[in-house]
Each structure stands twice: as structure tokens, then as C-alpha cells.
Amino acid sequence: MTHSHLFLHIVIRWLDFTALAAVLGGLSYRCFVLTPACRARSIWNGGTSDRALMAVMLAALVVTSVIDLSLRTVMMSGRPVSELFSVIPTVFLKTHFGGIWIGRFGLILLLGGILFLEARGIFGKTASGYLSLGAGAALGLTTGLSGHAANQGNWTGTVFVDWVHVLAVSGWVGGLFILTMHLSPFLIAVSGIERRAFLAAVIRSFSTVAMTCVGGLLLSGAYNTWIHVHSTSLLVGTEYGKILILKWALLVPMILLGGISRFYVLPRLENSDGSPKNGVLTRLARSIIEAVWKRPDDQRLERLFVRLIIIEAVLGLGVLGCSAWITQLPPPHETSLGLDHGQGQHTM
């Protein structure tokens, strides 16, 4: 593959991973973050906007999936782009990859149908949320099933770990995307004490989801690193290893920024007198933050949180970019001395 083709594949995979993460993260956000926070404060004024946002994310996923399918079909068949439409039926009907992607498009259609039925009042938000989560989890599995391990007939724990990795990355990074886009417009209609309490409920719920996802991400990522990179020399001496190091280097500041939201912003919001609760991590976060910035009031505290999640989301885009890059590289353990002999297909 030429460098220009490699770059194109990386960009398309990056966009596809981003759209998938936004969809899965959005489903998690609606079920575990937004709905509990709204119930806790007896408010709900964002139902239409969050459904519309999910519809846009699903449409984006359809577009990126079609483009990714087209590129991978051309690559697998060796045919020119002009013959794409004559080749795709064969790929769909006679290949493992095609079968998985039929399922992928079917699940996207199912998610769209659930959102439509919710909008018409046929499904309530609770039923819609859990049905969507099930379909979303299955959608995340299609990434692992069309990846390198499944393509080679490896149906052991590797595919399961890849699935956990996709769900963990999506729940955290994709959730950040939706939180960044949806929270500020939602807060406009909430004011005063209600606003402070609602924001605290959102931070608590989202940080709980994020910490769970970080745990799954660290465990699955460590397992994949152990499986694919057997030595320090392969980690620092191959392109695959260097991109992996960059990916982990981006995750570290994301975790730290999330810690500031959880252990500084949240305690400040939850206490009526504005002082954080005592605790080792809370005191540490307070000493660091207030040594750099003047202690913020409620408005500045809210702006601080919004900036934190925006920075986290940007770093998350970098993480997904690294994941897309890795999919185009063979794991070092499958190549002699870590040399590139072909193209890899891995998950996030």
C-alpha cells in the first residue's frame, strides 16, 4: 500500500471509530448520565435535542461505515473503484467480513428504529435506553468480529477482550463527545441552585461511568499489549509500538483531567458552603488547583468543568486516531523482528 493510500485508510478508520464511539458513548450517556440526573432534579427539557444528536451520530456512522466498507472491499478484491458495485454483493454474501457488516448495518437500522419509536411515544425512555444499549453492545462487537483475530479464526478470549476495549473506549471517549455537545445547551434552561445540583449529578454519574470504562480500558489494553508486543525492543523499536506508546501517553492526561472533575469540581458543587469535602484525593486536587488558580465561584467552576471535558474530548480524538493508525499496522509478534509484512486489522 502506498503512503497516500495508507493515510487515506487511517483517516477513514479514524472517522469511523469516532462516529462509532460517539454513538455508543451517546447511548451510555442517555441511559446512565442524563436520565438519572434529570430524575434526581425532576427536570427534563433536553429529550428532543439528545434524540436529534443521536440521530446525527447514527447518520455519520452510516456514512463512515459505507466509505470504510468500500475501501476495504477494493483492498480485498484488488479491483478498481469503478467495479466496486459489482464486487460488493460478492463480499456481502461470500465473506466473513461481509456477513459481519450486514449485521452492522442492521443494528444501525435497529437503533434508528428504536429512537423513532421513542420519539412517537411507543417506547418510554427507560425501555428505549436499555434496548438501545443492547443493540449498541452488539454493534460494538461487530468491530471485534471484523478485526484481525476473528478473520484468522481466533475465537478465543482475544475477540472478547477487543469487544470490552471497544465498549470501554466508546463509553468514555464517545461519552465525552456527547457530553461536550449536549451539556451547555441543556444547562441554559436550568438556573440557580437547580443548575448547581443538576451539574453535580451529571458529573457524578459521568465520572462513575468513566472510571468503570477506564478500568476496562486499562485491563483490555494491557492484555492486548502483552499479546501483540512481547518485548521492550518491539515496543520502542517498531512503528506499532511507538503508536501504542503515544496512545497511552494521551490517555494519562485524560485520566488526570477526569480526576480534577471528580475530586475537585464535584465536591465543590455538592457542598452548599462551596467547600470541598475532606479526602486524600480531594485535598490533593484542591491544593494543586487553588495553588495555580484563584478559587473559582460557581460560574467559573462550571466554565472550568466545560474546559476540562473539551480538552479531554480533543485528547480522546487523538486516542482514536492512534487506534485507527494501529489497525493499518501488523502486530510485532506476527512479523519477523517486527518488520512490516502486511496490513493489520485490529480494534480500537
Note down, in words, how this protein is organized.
- This protein has 348 residues and is mainly α.
- The protein has one domain.
- The chain contains twelve helices and no strands.
- Helix 1 runs antiparallel to helix 2 and helix 7 runs antiparallel to helix 12.
- The longest helix has 39 residues.
- The chain starts with a helix and ends in a 21-residue tail after the last helix.
- About 3% of the residues have low confidence.
> Percentage of helical residues?
over 70%
Total strand segments: 0
Average of pLDDT = 84
The largest sheet is: none
Poorly predicted regions: 336-344
Class computed from helices, strands and strand pairing: mainly alpha
Number of separate domains: 1
SSE order: HHHHHHHHHHHH
If you compute it from the alpha carbons, what radius of gyration comes out, rounded to the nearest whole angstrom?
A: 22 Å
Instruction: Please work out how many helical segments DSSP would assign.
Output: 12
Task: Report the oligomer.
Answer: single chain
Proportion of strand residues = under 5%
Name the shape in a single word.
Answer: globular
Kindly, what is the distance between the CA atoms of the first and last residues, rounded to a whole number of angstroms? 21 Å
Overview features:
single chain, 348 residues, mainly alpha, globular
Précis, in short:
The protein is mainly α and 348 residues long. It is built from 12 helices and no strands.
List the helices and strands and how they pair.
Blueprint: H1 3-41, H2 47-77, H3 84-94, H4 96-119, H5 125-145, H6 148-151, H7 157-187, H8 192-228, H9 232-237, H10 239-270, H11 280-292, H12 298-327
